[in-house]
Amino acid sequence: MDYKTYIAERLSVEGVSKEELAESIVVPPDTSLGDYALPCFKFAKLLRRSPALIAQELAERYPADGVVSSVSAVNGYLNFKIDGRSLAEETLARIEREGERYGASDVGAGKTVCIDYSSVNIAKPFHIGHLSTTVLGGALYRIFGFLGYRTVGINHLGDYGTQFGKLISAYKHWGVKEAVQEGGIRAVNDLYVRFNREATPEMEAEAREYFRLIESGDEEANELFEWFKSLTMAYVGKIYDRLHIRFDSYAGERFYIDKMQPVIDELKEKGLLVESQGAQVVDLEAYGMPPFIVLRSDGASLYATRDLAAAVYRKKTYDFEKCLYVVAYQQNLHFKQLFKVLELMGKDWAKDMVHVAYGMVSLEDGAMSTRQGKVVWLEDVISRCVEKAKEVLEEKNPALENREDVAEKVGVGAVVFGALYNNKIKDIVFSYDKALNFDGETSVYVQYTCARAASVLAKAGGSSLGDAVCAPNAQELEVLKSLAEFPDAVLAAAKNYEPSTIARFAVDCAQKFNKFYIECKILQAESEETRAYRLRLTRAALTVMTTALRLLGIGVPEKM
Questions:
Q1: Which H or E run includes 114?
Q2: Contacts with 402 (C-beta within 8 Å, 6 or more apart), sequence order
Q3: How many other CB atoms sit within 10 Å of the CB of residue 181?
Q4: Lowest mean pLDDT, pick from 102-106, 357-361, 405-409
Q5: I want to staple 530 with a disulfide (CB 3.0 to 4.6 A). Which of 396, 407, 422, 525 is the partner?
Q6: Whether 322 contacts 114, CB under 8 Å
Q7: What whole-number distance in Å separates Cα of residue 170 and Cα of residue 149?
Q8: Domains (range + CATH), the chain
Q9: What does the DSSP 8-state code read for residue 326?
Q10: Taking 90 as the threshold, does the pLDDT of residue 125 lie above it?
Q11: What is the pLDDT of residues 497-531, one digit of tens each?
């Protein structure tokens, strides 16, 4: 049951819709007064009465029922306590009925969300800095899909620019085909780094010429480019598989080269393009922003030009409800400019473009530079975390079967969860030891809790649990309330583009389940009815925690 909607349907506030009432109801930090609360402060101006008086009047009018056991008005808040037995019956039955779809909905039915994330650069390292955009985008892809949206995952490849001329020049001077083929993207990156260290002015000119040849369709130059691209995609594809990431489109910058001119023409027709120091720009001074450069003084386009073309193409192709750009906060200004230019062009859908900004991820030993070769490859971070997971598992459970598979789930999960647990805008310093802590706010803690629940159920065998329900004690009630909140957590994660909502829910649920597990006998419960009821609660908790982790892209081992 959606308790917020249930309560809102039984309230009546003049001038306020049931939907607005439901959205205003919150779960208070301290649930000693109530499981749900309606702050009445926002209604004071509308009703011309004090929040305390509004709350008191609503409490007096709320109809008695078997779901809400008590209603009270305290300091402008209307507090509701849910009947424990009703909560247990409704929550357990719904989770058993819906299974892994518990928390899903059809709110997005018939709507499309485009999500631009990861956006790797061809022939450049897939490094630790790509972690957040990749796993944030992947989580949002799954969350919106879970809510019934058609999701379109877009990997906007960085596959256009003078760096490819540099690569060809470097390859011509120093490359050996067999060695590059075998070394893959790392060998290609070595060539790029060497070019930036050793290139002469003649080689720089040569690189510009090679890029011109790529643009003009030269066969050899384009064959080399496509080779570099294939080496890159083969490499990143393996990492995407480990991270459970998928895309529906790999249309990158190069894809939009022939789609820019109509957008440039439209800017001219609408009088938005002006000349500034030889460049063609959209003047945004009136909006407190610097000019948006569309064409450089030499007539060349920029990635900003291609972003404009991409936005127009995506709306025309997918007719999106929202188009999300999961890109670091350093690009805040660029996206403000981009969205404003689309608005000035008369695109009413510009309001549906969203920059999902995130903070940076680094290791404890500092920053990176691709050109200088100081880079931490994401593959190395994942592999090291998996190896450390093996060591921890060996220490914790030497007899564990399928240790390789379990270590993969634990290690990869630790990397993903480390990037998703905190609010997305925060910078993150990744620590292997903290990420693999069995007792901390980590995916390992949640995975271990799932394994603990699965072990209890396995020991119970195939005994029928029926629809056994008891009036919940304090520990059981906390678990039930947590499980009942999961659908709201999923909706909030989508609304705020914040997967950390689900990550934090998973930890909170695991903490409450573990307290229940420690303080309440399950298999040796005092009666058969209590035993069956607690096993139902255990099974429901396992289902919901597993779903939460899977929405984040994290696997759940059966044993740990």
A1: strand 112-116
A2: 557, 559
A3: 12
A4: 357-361
A5: 525
A6: yes
A7: 45
A8: 3-82 (3.30.1360.70), 112-363 (3.40.50.620)
A9: E
A10: no
A11: 999 999 999 999 999 999 999 999 999 999 999 99
